[in-house]
Amino acid sequence: FQEFEHKFCDLLKTYQPPAAVSQELFKTEMKNLHMYGYGLKSMMLSMIETACRITGGKENLHCAEEIIRLGQELLQKPVTLLDGVENVVAGVSGGADSMCMLNILLQLRERYGYHLTVVHIHHGIRGQSADEDMEYVEKFCGEKKIEFFGFHYKVEELAKVWHMSDEEAGRKIRYEAFEKILGQNGGGKIAVAHNSGDSSETFLFQLFRGSGIKGLNGIAPVRENIIRPILCLDREEILEYLCENGIDYRTDETNRENHYSRNKIRNELLPYISQNINEKAAWHIRQKAEALGEI
């Protein structure tokens, strides 16, 4: 977004009305969009519209065309998480988020030339539903010619042995499996499908646990060899993408249950705050988490 804003401002310097006026109007409008919580894609599209209006639109057709070209280029430009990467191991559950990420990685594979591998973890908790999740992901990978590895664990039993919660045990076995396959493939990146809402949940979860500032910086798009390609997307944008591209996905019924702390935050706390206090609360939380990450 900052790259987009800077390039627009540089472009505006060369057109009328006077550059100082154009840039001031432009930055004011962008600040308003930022404050009211527009998603990244919506903000960029609004920036194109605003810049065209400021520079005269039809009266300055060349500028408008240049702005639209720049906007389209940057909207389609992936974050450089994949430059020079030879292998990508994607953790795919079959749910909406991971299927969105997988299809994006599949589309980008031709451009970047990396080897794409999918790892699916069966946690041994949800019986037939979990079996069907694994079958769905394996079948999808077979149709798309994607290397697939499926792992089956009994997470509840492992959690007792390791003296940790089911959530912690699940996370541990997932990343161990990702690292195992990545090592077999010669290294590269592990792609996981956190979205922007997950960052808000993580901030609150860590806050309630008494974490210090370092623990309150949300979820980073890159951490060592782990990348999160769809962290900039919210749930609505992900579902819209899947609908537009005709992509099916599985639904984990346990996500609606409130046995786990994160589910309570996602299903009860954040909706209550959004409905009764501030509808943009989740967005503001993400912004504060990002700001703390820069300290």
Describe the secondary structure blueprint for this structure.
Blueprint: H1 2-12, H2 19-35, H3 40-54, H4 61-76, E1 87-91, H5 96-112, E2 115-122, H6 127-144, E3 147-152, H7 155-162, H8 166-184, E4 189-191, H9 196-208, E5 222-223, E6 226-227, H10 235-244, H11 261-276, H12 281-293
Parallel strand pairs: 1-2, 1-4, 2-3, 4-6
Antiparallel strand pairs: 5-6
Helix pairs in contact: 1-4, 2-3, 3-4, 5-10, 7-8, 9-11, 9-12
Notes on the protein architecture:
The chain has 295 residues and is of the alpha/beta class. The protein contains twelve helices and six strands. The protein has a six-stranded mixed beta sheet with strand order 3-2-1-4-6-5, with helices on both faces. β1 (87-91), α5 and β2 (115-122) form a beta-alpha-beta unit. α3 runs antiparallel to α4 (61-76) and α5 crosses α10. The chain starts with a helix and ends with a helix. Residues 15-23, 31-41 and 57-61 have low confidence and may be disordered.
Short description:
This protein has 295 residues and is an alpha/beta fold.
Keywords:
12 helices; 295 residues; single chain; six-stranded mixed sheet; alpha/beta
Q: What's the number of helices?
A: 12
Strand content: 5-15%
**How many beta-strand elements?**
6
Task: Please give the order of strands in the largest beta sheet.
Answer: 3-2-1-4-6-5
What kind of sheet is the major sheet? 6 strands, mixed
- Range of helix content: 55-70%
Shape descriptor: globular
**Which whole number gives the mean pLDDT?**
77
Q: What value does the Rg take, in angstroms?
A: 21 Å
Uncertain residue ranges:
15-23, 31-41, 57-61
CA(first)-CA(last) distance: 20 Å
Give me the strand/helix succession. HHHHEHEHEHHEHEEHHH
Structural class: alpha/beta
